[in-house]
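## retry 2 of 3
previous attempt timed out at serialization; input unchanged, resubmitting
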Amino acid sequence: MNDSSSPPASPPVRQEKGDPGKVVVFDGKGGVTSVGGLDHEPKVPPHGFVLVTGNSRSPEFKVWLKHAIGVFEADVLTVPSTRSRCTVADDRAMIVMRVVRPGADPNDIGRQLLTMRIARGQVIVASELNIPELLGVSQWQQTQHAPLSPADLVARLALRASDRIEPLIEALGNRLDDIEEQLISAHDAKNQVRLAQLRRDLISFRRLIWPQRDVLTTLEVEDISFFTERDRMRLREASSRSARLGDELQTLSERAVLVHEQILDARSEQLNRTMLVLAAVTVVFLPLTLVTGALGMNVSGIPFADEPWAFVGVCAGLLAVALGLVWWMHGRRWL
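## retry succeeded, writing output
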Protein backbone atom coordinates (compact mmCIF):
# COMPACT_ATOMS: atom_id res chain seq x y z
CA MET A 1 0.00 0.00 0.00
CA ASN A 2 1.49 3.32 -1.05
CA ASP A 3 1.60 6.30 1.23
CA SER A 4 -1.01 8.85 0.19
CA SER A 5 1.35 11.80 0.38
CA SER A 6 3.89 11.12 -2.36
CA PRO A 7 7.18 13.04 -2.45
CA PRO A 8 8.16 15.47 -5.18
CA ALA A 9 8.87 13.97 -8.58
CA SER A 10 12.53 15.01 -8.63
CA PRO A 11 14.94 12.62 -6.88
CA PRO A 12 16.38 13.74 -3.55
CA VAL A 13 19.81 15.28 -3.69
CA ARG A 14 22.70 14.39 -1.45
CA GLN A 15 23.61 16.49 1.52
CA GLU A 16 26.86 18.39 1.45
CA LYS A 17 29.56 16.95 3.69
CA GLY A 18 29.96 20.28 5.41
CA ASP A 19 26.26 20.54 6.26
CA PRO A 20 26.09 19.79 10.03
CA GLY A 21 22.44 18.73 9.88
CA LYS A 22 18.79 19.75 10.02
CA VAL A 23 16.13 19.67 12.74
CA VAL A 24 12.44 19.10 12.01
CA VAL A 25 9.68 19.10 14.64
CA PHE A 26 6.53 16.98 14.30
CA ASP A 27 3.60 17.92 16.54
CA GLY A 28 2.04 14.45 16.52
CA LYS A 29 -1.14 15.75 14.89
CA GLY A 30 0.01 15.85 11.26
CA GLY A 31 1.82 19.18 11.44
CA VAL A 32 5.54 19.68 10.87
CA THR A 33 7.93 22.59 11.31
CA SER A 34 11.44 22.90 9.90
CA VAL A 35 13.48 24.51 12.68
CA GLY A 36 16.92 24.79 11.09
CA GLY A 37 20.39 23.56 12.01
CA LEU A 38 21.75 21.61 14.93
CA ASP A 39 22.40 24.75 16.95
CA HIS A 40 18.66 24.95 17.65
CA GLU A 41 17.23 23.05 20.61
CA PRO A 42 13.52 22.83 19.88
CA LYS A 43 10.99 21.87 22.48
CA VAL A 44 9.47 18.47 21.92
CA PRO A 45 5.64 18.67 21.68
CA PRO A 46 3.72 16.58 24.26
CA HIS A 47 2.57 14.06 21.65
CA GLY A 48 5.16 14.79 18.97
CA PHE A 49 8.82 14.15 18.27
CA VAL A 50 11.92 15.71 16.72
CA LEU A 51 13.71 14.50 13.60
CA VAL A 52 17.45 15.24 13.36
CA THR A 53 19.16 14.46 10.05
CA GLY A 54 22.77 14.89 9.04
CA ASN A 55 25.44 13.73 6.64
CA SER A 56 27.17 10.65 8.07
CA ARG A 57 30.50 11.93 6.69
CA SER A 58 30.21 15.42 8.10
CA PRO A 59 32.75 16.03 10.92
CA GLU A 60 30.43 18.61 12.53
CA PHE A 61 27.55 16.16 12.59
CA LYS A 62 29.76 13.44 14.12
CA VAL A 63 30.85 15.83 16.89
CA TRP A 64 27.21 16.74 17.59
CA LEU A 65 26.26 13.05 17.77
CA LYS A 66 29.00 12.26 20.29
CA HIS A 67 27.80 15.06 22.57
CA ALA A 68 24.11 14.23 22.13
CA ILE A 69 23.96 10.42 22.35
CA GLY A 70 27.44 9.27 23.32
CA VAL A 71 30.48 7.99 21.49
CA PHE A 72 29.32 4.39 21.11
CA GLU A 73 25.93 5.12 19.54
CA ALA A 74 27.45 7.91 17.45
CA ASP A 75 29.92 5.43 15.97
CA VAL A 76 27.11 2.96 15.26
CA LEU A 77 25.26 5.66 13.32
CA THR A 78 28.21 6.88 11.27
CA VAL A 79 30.43 3.83 10.69
CA PRO A 80 29.65 2.22 7.27
CA SER A 81 27.91 -1.14 7.46
CA THR A 82 27.56 -3.92 4.91
CA ARG A 83 24.16 -5.29 5.95
CA SER A 84 20.77 -4.09 7.13
CA ARG A 85 19.77 -4.81 10.72
CA CYS A 86 17.63 -3.66 13.66
CA THR A 87 18.90 -3.70 17.25
CA VAL A 88 16.70 -2.81 20.22
CA ALA A 89 18.09 -2.01 23.68
CA ASP A 90 17.02 0.23 26.58
CA ASP A 91 13.77 1.17 24.86
CA ARG A 92 15.70 2.47 21.84
CA ALA A 93 16.13 1.05 18.36
CA MET A 94 19.18 1.29 16.11
CA ILE A 95 18.35 0.62 12.46
CA VAL A 96 20.64 0.21 9.47
CA MET A 97 19.08 0.07 6.00
CA ARG A 98 20.49 0.21 2.51
CA VAL A 99 18.32 1.97 -0.04
CA VAL A 100 18.61 2.64 -3.77
CA ARG A 101 20.64 5.73 -4.50
CA PRO A 102 19.04 8.69 -6.34
CA GLY A 103 18.83 8.36 -10.11
CA ALA A 104 19.84 4.69 -10.03
CA ASP A 105 19.77 2.67 -13.23
CA PRO A 106 18.43 -0.91 -13.24
CA ASN A 107 21.80 -2.07 -14.56
CA ASP A 108 23.68 -0.27 -11.77
CA ILE A 109 21.42 0.34 -8.80
CA GLY A 110 24.10 1.19 -6.26
CA ARG A 111 23.24 1.36 -2.58
CA GLN A 112 23.04 4.21 -0.11
CA LEU A 113 23.50 3.60 3.60
CA LEU A 114 20.84 4.96 5.95
CA THR A 115 21.14 4.59 9.75
CA MET A 116 18.58 5.65 12.35
CA ARG A 117 18.29 5.93 16.11
CA ILE A 118 14.73 5.82 17.40
CA ALA A 119 13.98 6.93 20.95
CA ARG A 120 11.00 8.43 22.73
CA GLY A 121 10.40 11.85 21.19
CA GLN A 122 13.43 11.77 18.90
CA VAL A 123 14.59 10.21 15.63
CA ILE A 124 18.16 10.71 14.40
CA VAL A 125 19.00 9.79 10.81
CA ALA A 126 22.57 9.70 9.50
CA SER A 127 22.90 9.41 5.73
CA GLU A 128 24.41 11.09 2.69
CA LEU A 129 20.88 11.43 1.36
CA ASN A 130 18.83 14.55 1.92
CA ILE A 131 16.25 12.93 4.20
CA PRO A 132 13.79 15.87 4.39
CA GLU A 133 13.75 15.97 0.60
CA LEU A 134 13.33 12.18 0.38
CA LEU A 135 10.42 12.22 2.83
CA GLY A 136 8.75 15.27 1.29
CA VAL A 137 8.73 17.42 4.45
CA SER A 138 7.90 20.58 2.49
CA GLN A 139 4.74 18.94 1.16
CA TRP A 140 3.76 17.76 4.63
CA GLN A 141 3.94 21.36 5.79
CA GLN A 142 1.22 22.21 3.28
CA THR A 143 -0.99 19.14 3.62
CA GLN A 144 -0.69 18.65 7.40
CA HIS A 145 -0.30 14.93 6.76
CA ALA A 146 3.03 14.37 8.48
CA PRO A 147 3.89 11.22 10.49
CA LEU A 148 2.31 11.07 13.93
CA SER A 149 5.07 9.11 15.67
CA PRO A 150 8.67 7.92 15.20
CA ALA A 151 7.47 4.49 14.05
CA ASP A 152 5.18 6.16 11.53
CA LEU A 153 8.16 8.11 10.22
CA VAL A 154 10.23 4.92 9.82
CA ALA A 155 7.34 3.21 8.03
CA ARG A 156 6.96 6.10 5.60
CA LEU A 157 10.70 6.19 5.00
CA ALA A 158 10.59 2.47 4.17
CA LEU A 159 7.66 3.10 1.83
CA ARG A 160 9.65 5.86 0.11
CA ALA A 161 12.51 3.39 -0.36
CA SER A 162 10.06 0.87 -1.83
CA ASP A 163 8.63 3.54 -4.13
CA ARG A 164 12.12 4.15 -5.53
CA ILE A 165 12.92 0.49 -6.14
CA GLU A 166 9.54 -0.57 -7.59
CA PRO A 167 10.00 1.07 -11.05
CA LEU A 168 13.46 -0.51 -11.25
CA ILE A 169 11.94 -3.94 -10.60
CA GLU A 170 9.37 -3.22 -13.29
CA ALA A 171 12.20 -2.35 -15.69
CA LEU A 172 13.83 -5.71 -14.92
CA GLY A 173 10.56 -7.43 -15.75
CA ASN A 174 10.38 -5.59 -19.06
CA ARG A 175 13.94 -6.67 -19.89
CA LEU A 176 13.02 -10.28 -19.17
CA ASP A 177 9.93 -9.96 -21.40
CA ASP A 178 12.11 -8.64 -24.23
CA ILE A 179 14.49 -11.59 -23.91
CA GLU A 180 11.59 -14.07 -23.98
CA GLU A 181 10.09 -12.37 -27.03
CA GLN A 182 13.39 -12.48 -28.91
CA LEU A 183 13.78 -16.17 -28.06
CA ILE A 184 10.40 -16.87 -29.64
CA SER A 185 11.06 -14.83 -32.78
CA ALA A 186 14.75 -15.61 -33.31
CA HIS A 187 17.57 -17.32 -31.45
CA ASP A 188 20.03 -14.54 -30.70
CA ALA A 189 23.38 -15.47 -29.17
CA LYS A 190 23.38 -12.20 -27.20
CA ASN A 191 20.31 -13.26 -25.22
CA GLN A 192 22.34 -15.47 -22.91
CA VAL A 193 24.67 -12.57 -22.04
CA ARG A 194 21.70 -10.28 -21.40
CA LEU A 195 20.01 -12.93 -19.28
CA ALA A 196 23.15 -13.45 -17.19
CA GLN A 197 23.33 -9.71 -16.48
CA LEU A 198 19.64 -9.68 -15.60
CA ARG A 199 20.06 -12.54 -13.13
CA ARG A 200 22.95 -10.70 -11.45
CA ASP A 201 20.73 -7.61 -11.12
CA LEU A 202 17.96 -9.69 -9.58
CA ILE A 203 20.37 -11.03 -6.98
CA SER A 204 21.45 -7.48 -6.10
CA PHE A 205 17.84 -6.37 -5.74
CA ARG A 206 16.98 -9.32 -3.49
CA ARG A 207 19.94 -8.50 -1.25
CA LEU A 208 18.50 -5.01 -0.97
CA ILE A 209 14.80 -5.65 -0.39
CA TRP A 210 14.69 -8.78 1.79
CA PRO A 211 16.81 -7.34 4.64
CA GLN A 212 14.59 -4.25 4.66
CA ARG A 213 11.57 -6.47 5.28
CA ASP A 214 13.39 -8.20 8.15
CA VAL A 215 14.31 -4.86 9.71
CA LEU A 216 10.71 -3.65 9.69
CA THR A 217 9.39 -6.97 11.01
CA THR A 218 11.91 -6.94 13.87
CA LEU A 219 11.01 -3.37 14.78
CA GLU A 220 7.32 -4.26 14.74
CA VAL A 221 7.56 -7.23 17.12
CA GLU A 222 10.04 -5.70 19.58
CA ASP A 223 8.69 -4.51 22.92
CA ILE A 224 9.21 -0.74 22.67
CA SER A 225 7.10 1.15 25.20
CA PHE A 226 6.22 4.21 23.09
CA PHE A 227 5.01 2.20 20.08
CA THR A 228 1.23 2.15 19.75
CA GLU A 229 -0.92 -0.39 17.95
CA ARG A 230 -1.21 2.08 15.07
CA ASP A 231 2.59 2.30 14.88
CA ARG A 232 2.90 -1.47 14.62
CA MET A 233 0.19 -1.53 11.98
CA ARG A 234 2.11 1.04 9.91
CA LEU A 235 5.33 -0.95 10.28
CA ARG A 236 3.46 -4.10 9.27
CA GLU A 237 2.15 -2.29 6.21
CA ALA A 238 5.66 -1.20 5.17
CA SER A 239 6.99 -4.71 5.84
CA SER A 240 4.25 -6.22 3.67
CA ARG A 241 5.15 -3.84 0.87
CA SER A 242 8.79 -4.94 1.04
CA ALA A 243 7.70 -8.58 1.16
CA ARG A 244 5.54 -8.08 -1.94
CA LEU A 245 8.47 -6.61 -3.84
CA GLY A 246 10.63 -9.49 -2.63
CA ASP A 247 8.07 -12.00 -3.90
CA GLU A 248 8.00 -10.21 -7.25
CA LEU A 249 11.78 -10.46 -7.45
CA GLN A 250 11.56 -14.16 -6.61
CA THR A 251 9.04 -14.66 -9.40
CA LEU A 252 11.30 -12.86 -11.87
CA SER A 253 14.21 -15.04 -10.74
CA GLU A 254 12.20 -18.21 -11.37
CA ARG A 255 11.18 -16.90 -14.79
CA ALA A 256 14.82 -16.11 -15.57
CA VAL A 257 15.76 -19.71 -14.71
CA LEU A 258 13.08 -21.01 -17.08
CA VAL A 259 14.29 -18.69 -19.85
CA HIS A 260 17.86 -19.88 -19.24
CA GLU A 261 16.70 -23.48 -19.62
CA GLN A 262 14.89 -22.50 -22.80
CA ILE A 263 18.10 -21.00 -24.19
CA LEU A 264 19.99 -24.20 -23.34
CA ASP A 265 17.27 -26.33 -24.96
CA ALA A 266 17.38 -24.19 -28.11
CA ARG A 267 21.15 -24.46 -28.24
CA SER A 268 21.00 -28.23 -27.70
CA GLU A 269 18.38 -28.60 -30.44
CA GLN A 270 20.52 -26.57 -32.83
CA LEU A 271 23.55 -28.72 -31.99
CA ASN A 272 21.55 -31.90 -32.58
CA ARG A 273 20.42 -30.65 -35.97
CA THR A 274 23.96 -29.81 -36.94
CA MET A 275 25.21 -33.24 -35.87
CA LEU A 276 22.37 -34.87 -37.82
CA VAL A 277 23.33 -33.02 -41.00
CA LEU A 278 26.99 -33.95 -40.54
CA ALA A 279 26.05 -37.58 -39.96
CA ALA A 280 23.86 -37.58 -43.08
CA VAL A 281 26.68 -36.12 -45.17
CA THR A 282 29.02 -38.78 -43.83
CA VAL A 283 26.57 -41.58 -44.69
CA VAL A 284 26.11 -40.24 -48.23
CA PHE A 285 29.78 -39.72 -49.02
CA LEU A 286 31.16 -42.85 -47.35
CA PRO A 287 30.22 -45.28 -50.18
CA LEU A 288 31.13 -42.66 -52.79
CA THR A 289 34.57 -42.30 -51.22
CA LEU A 290 34.97 -46.07 -51.22
CA VAL A 291 34.18 -46.36 -54.95
CA THR A 292 36.33 -43.41 -56.00
CA GLY A 293 39.18 -44.69 -53.86
CA ALA A 294 39.01 -48.09 -55.46
CA LEU A 295 38.90 -46.66 -58.97
CA GLY A 296 41.75 -44.31 -58.22
CA MET A 297 44.28 -47.04 -57.40
CA ASN A 298 47.35 -46.93 -59.64
CA VAL A 299 47.19 -50.61 -60.67
CA SER A 300 46.25 -52.41 -63.84
CA GLY A 301 42.95 -54.15 -64.37
CA ILE A 302 40.60 -51.27 -63.45
CA PRO A 303 37.35 -51.82 -65.42
CA PHE A 304 36.57 -49.46 -68.32
CA ALA A 305 39.85 -47.60 -67.83
CA ASP A 306 40.25 -47.16 -71.60
CA GLU A 307 36.63 -46.31 -72.40
CA PRO A 308 35.85 -42.63 -73.24
CA TRP A 309 32.47 -42.71 -71.46
CA ALA A 310 33.83 -44.27 -68.24
CA PHE A 311 34.29 -41.01 -66.28
CA VAL A 312 30.78 -39.78 -67.08
CA GLY A 313 29.31 -43.16 -66.32
CA VAL A 314 31.05 -43.45 -62.95
CA CYS A 315 29.94 -39.91 -61.99
CA ALA A 316 26.35 -40.72 -62.95
CA GLY A 317 26.46 -43.90 -60.92
CA LEU A 318 27.84 -42.09 -57.88
CA LEU A 319 25.10 -39.44 -58.18
CA ALA A 320 22.46 -42.14 -58.36
CA VAL A 321 23.84 -43.81 -55.23
CA ALA A 322 23.90 -40.49 -53.37
CA LEU A 323 20.31 -39.67 -54.33
CA GLY A 324 19.22 -43.15 -53.36
CA LEU A 325 20.78 -42.80 -49.91
CA VAL A 326 19.14 -39.39 -49.38
CA TRP A 327 15.76 -40.80 -50.42
CA TRP A 328 16.21 -43.79 -48.08
CA MET A 329 17.13 -41.60 -45.06
CA HIS A 330 14.25 -39.24 -45.79
CA GLY A 331 11.87 -42.20 -45.90
CA ARG A 332 13.05 -43.31 -42.46
CA ARG A 333 12.59 -39.71 -41.17
CA TRP A 334 16.29 -39.28 -40.48
CA LEU A 335 16.28 -36.03 -42.47
